[in-house]
Amino acid sequence: MKITTYKYLLLIIVVLLVTVNLKAQTITSLSPTSGSLGGNTVVSIKGTGFIKDNIVGVYFKKHGAVKEYNVVSETLITFKTTAISSPSIDKVYIEFKKDAKKVYSSIVYEYKLPEISTVSPNSTSVKGKKKITIKGKYFSGTTYVKFGSAGNVPLSVTDTIVTVANPPHVSKEIGVQVEVQSNFSRITEASKFTYKSDKPDSTYVISLDNLTGLDKKYKIYVLGYSTSSQKMLTLNGATSQGTFKKMPSDSGYVKSYELVKELKTIKVSNKNPLVGARIYFFIKDTTVTYKDNSTKTSNNNLGFKYKKFGASVFQVNNPPQNAFPQYNYIEATFKKDKGLFIDISTVDGFFFPLSIIAEDKSGNELDRIGQPHNITAKNITAAYKPFMKKLIKAGEPTAAYYTPLSYSVNKDLTALLNPGLYLEKETSMLETVFDEALNKLFTDTSLKMNIWQNGTNKFSANYTVTPVSAITFPGTTNKHGALKFTASGAETLYAFNPVGFSVVSYQQGNKRAPIMGSINKRNELIFKTPLPLNTGLKVGMYVSPGGGSSDGITRITKINKSKKGIVSVTLNTSNSYSASFQYKFAKAPTQYYYSSGQMTFAGIGLFADGSFRYPGKSNKAINNQTVINGLENQISTALNRGIAIVDYKTAKTAGYTTTNWGKETSWYPKNQPQNYFSYFLHTTKVGGTNIFTLPIVNKTKSSRGDYMGRAYGFAYDENPIGGKGGAQVPSEFPGSFPKGTTQLKLILGSWK
Questions:
Q1: Domain map of the chain by residue range?
Q2: What number is the average pLDDT over the span 571-593?
Q3: Around Cβ 332, how many Cβ atoms within 10 Å?
Q4: Whole-number Å distance between alpha carbons of 162 and 178
Q5: Within 10 A of 426 (CB to CB), how many other CB atoms are there?
Q6: Among 287, 422, 369, which residue's Cα sits nearest to residue 729?
Q7: Rounded to whole angstroms, how far apart are CA atoms 589 and 447?
Q8: Which of helix, strand or coil describes residue 496?
């Protein structure tokens, strides 16, 4: 009996030992959960059942075996990550010998772009060659540090600190970027760096040249002002030179000066700081009478009225207009100790050629923005309609909606309007061209967007984007679909879908028609023509001001229908207004009576409403305003470029959507809703020459294979966020000029 008992006891012990040795394999934690693209991050895996002899290896699901691993105990394994080529989210697993079992971690590991938190010092002279310490994270594997357009290899590298000798650079504020595995960190407020000139005082004389080729009935007048600096362009008659001087009184008129006869050059200097100045060029037909204040200015030339010592200027209306002569303008900012930012603005349209040329002391051209020397106004506008017809013939029918943007100013000049500006006064199918893309963007969960955005005080975040429905719009009781933006440590924000938010016209055959009607004494808005039932009117919508309606007060309480359609709406309150009037409707008042198309083209309404939906002056409020405006900016700009809903292959990577939208080589793809007007400005050629100058370096092609010139085409400056080494695409000199530049020339180009 004793022998038998011992046998059973031995069997129990063996079973227990086997049971212990076969304890279930689990992974309970992973730390850290992110690291550098350059690899060598030491990661700890905690769990159970880590028997060394039973382990085949540690792996990433996408990227294979880890660099090396060590089984510390049955509950702890450490390993080093391998280097990979681009940001990625991956799963870690352990493979065991028994049954070839693979145990996955439920916690993912993310390979991240390097992130800069501080740069010290954050400024040097243009000579560079100072030791710069960059702090942040995910720096392992850093091979290069970029300072604007220059760079250097690092002196030392850890995962959190990089030191480098900064290279020489022109005087300019630039972004510092760390390169790991051919990927650069993003430029944020924390990574800004300033190169200061050894001679911080900088002055440029801009000579003015009239090459319009117009006859003597035309005169050119030049007018300049800055509301931010409260200065206006003032003529020194003895030298025929204009400089910016403080407004002389509380109110008065900004005067203009006749080109050549009075004004020949303009001097700008960072010793006389200038912020956001506009310099207008008016082409005045002397046979036409204008309402241009020429009877009110002290020199009897046209002018703008100003108040509050120049903080408020009553400028000319957007074109087309006839109170003032036809005009175009440039913009300039020249801050103390900074370089000159100067651009040719074609945001509102193309009105006549302007070019700014950087020259050396001998007058040799080094670079220019605007039109090449042989491109005329007639060349550009004559190419416009054929460009659109070619797109239509190629199977892009919405290009037909853009042809009316060309209009005659007079017998000597044809001009082009930006679609957003055109829709200010016109009803058009352009109002709906982005609707399909917008609805996909705001409702399709398969897009998996993740957008990077910065704010104030060095804030930045990668936002996970989720389509949501029936969100109450702030300040109203109306609900609407939106995108929800969430990020760790950041407030949840929303951007609303422009489609269906407002109703400004209705479909009439193959055209859009304005909504006309009149209000009677019973608070009924009776439509002149019954509206289709699918027009989109909703109870609770606000009614645009005028015609008996009060903005922010008058709303729809009932929609009245008949067999003919919507014949009227009942309002909560109104004033009787018997005359026919054009009405618009929106789920929020004041700044939202725009079509989805106009909001997208012009970057207005729901694409620029941070201060309305997140009001206040606290740091938090201002940051939220900045962030949501930036997010809306990115969306509307991506829609204009035609890339908002394409190429989401690896969309799970943090910030991928922003990076994708910034790839200039993806812009303007075929058969995607986009801003064809912008595409025209960027890529059209006349006689083999782009109508806007190409960059000297980094020339970039669109997705269709045509080089893109430096042109503004829609609401926002077009240098991409997240773009990696792409070309400069706005028509501007951004604070620096080619080496050897000593003077500038502005040319008013040929009309014919």
A1: 21-111, 113-196, 203-338, 502-586
A2: 97
A3: 24
A4: 9
A5: 16
A6: 369
A7: 31
A8: strand
Could you tell me the two tokens for 734? 């951004």
Predicted confidence at residue 652, as pLDDT, reads 61
Task: Point out the least confidently predicted range of 56-65, 609-618, 723-732.
Answer: 723-732
What is the spatial distance between Cα 312 and Cα 304, in angstroms, rounded to a whole number?
A: 10
How far apart are the C-alpha atoms of 529 and 547, rounded to whole Å?
17
- Is there a common fold for 21-111 and 113-196? yes
Cβ atoms 233, 266 nearer than 8 A: yes
Q: Could you give the percent of the chain with pLDDT greater than 90?
A: 81
Distance CA 711, CA 691 (A): 9
Three-state SS annotation for 27-80: EEEEECCEEECCCCCEEEEEEECCCHHHEEEEEECCCEECCEEEEEECCEEEEE
**Any idea of the CA torsion for 167, 170, 172, 173, to the nearest 10 degrees?**
-10
Domain spanning 113-196 has what CATH number?
2.60.40.10
* Structure confidence at residue 718 as a pLDDT band (50, 70, 90): low
Q: Any bridge partners for residue 714, and if so which?
A: none
pLDDT at 720: 59
Is 262's pLDDT higher than 60?
yes
624 touches 655 (CB < 8 A): no
Neighbours of 669 (CB within 10 A): 15
pTM of the model: 0.81
d(CA 578, CA 571): 15
Residues contacting residue 577 through CB under 8 Å, at least 6 positions apart: 518, 519, 547, 548
Identity of the amino acid at 421: L
Place of tokens 């706005």: 730
Q: What is the DSSP letter of 492?
A: -
Cβ proximity of 411 and 285 under 8 Å: no
Task: Supply φ then ψ for residue 457, to 5 degrees.
Answer: 50, 45
Give the 3-state secondary structure of residue 11: helix
Considering only CA atoms, give the Rg of the chain. Answer: 31
- CA-nearest of 283, 278, 229, 230 to 259 is 283
| Closest by CA position to 350, among listed 752, 5, 738, 691 | 691
CATH architecture of the domain with range 21-111: Sandwich (2.60)
> Tokens 């103390």 identify what position?
336
Within 13 A of 440's CA, how many CA atoms are on the CB side? 13
